[in-house]
Amino acid sequence: MAYKYKEVAETLRQEIKSGKYSPGELLPDQNQIAKNFNTTRITVHKALQLLIIEGMIYSKRGSGTYVRKDYSPDDHDPTFGKVSPIDKPFGATRTNKGKLVTSKVLELSARIPTEEEANKLLIQPTEPVYVIRRIRYVNGVIFAYEHTIMPTAITTLTEDILEKSIYGHLQKEGLRVEGTHRIVSADKANQIDVDSGIAENLGEPVLVIDQLSYLDDGQPFEISESRFPYRTSKLTADITL
User: Which residues of the chain carry a pLDDT beneath 50?
Assistant: First the structure.
């Protein structure tokens, strides 16, 4: 199924790549873009969100949407703008296919989102979100500690589902995960890391991945932070020039 927001995003992507909009330049406002494409402002918002996730543009509150100043088009890269393999949200179960992946659920609750969470998830401030905390194990060894925020409207979650695979559950519900924007960093272990077994001592290094994932209709469905033990974690990327 072809979604209108993807058509809008692809046209804007090509216009930016061709130089119609230069790095640092302000894009037309959402109402004007909606008029140009004969569509709705909501569709345009989803298209722009996709380009923001891809790292091509950014939004400045009260000012508008701009092409990133550090953007440099690469005409030799036909995959520009697509989610790179390192950023595909396969989840622990798919990442460790063939191994036993289990989870210990520490929290499954619901609350009203913070302003930042509502803005990232494109939901109203009054729409509740799940708060999910769990420890993931691979073949009985601690793999990661996860803290996830997800709108309750996306699906119904239970502890039984959380003990298995959230992404697997979404797939069974007919929801398709399209992509994710990830920030990978290093941090010093905090008390939660020590309590969960991710780290042995305060201050030792841990690998951190923050991500915002979205469905194929452009709806963001997950904000998560995953923390990994430095002794057993590594990040692999295949890069083609």
Answer: 75-89, 238-241
In the three-class reduction of DSSP (H, G, I as helix; E, B as strand; rest coil), residue 34 is classed as helix
Per-residue model confidence (pLDDT) at position 238: 47
Supply the pTM of this predicted model: 0.66
Rounded CA-CA distance 164/121 in Å is: 24
Which of 228, 61, 211 is closest to 149 using CA atoms? 211
- The dihedrals phi and psi of 112, each to the nearest 5 degrees, come to -80, 140
pLDDT in tens, 220-241: 899 999 999 998 887 765 443 3
Residue 15: what pLDDT?
Answer: 92
Residues in the chain: 241
∠ CA 123-148-67, rounded to 5°: 55
Name the helix (H) or strand (E) containing 105: strand 101-111
CATH of domain 85-229: 3.40.1410.10
Among 184, 206, 182, 211, which residue's Cα sits nearest to residue 193? 206
CATH number belonging to domain 4-67: 1.10.10.10
Phi-psi group of 227: left, alpha or beta (phi > 0 → left; psi -120 to 50 → alpha; rest → beta)? beta
What is the token pair recorded at 216?
Answer: 């194929």
Cα 4 to Cα 32, 33, 42, 108, 217: the distances in Å are 16, 13, 11, 35, 9
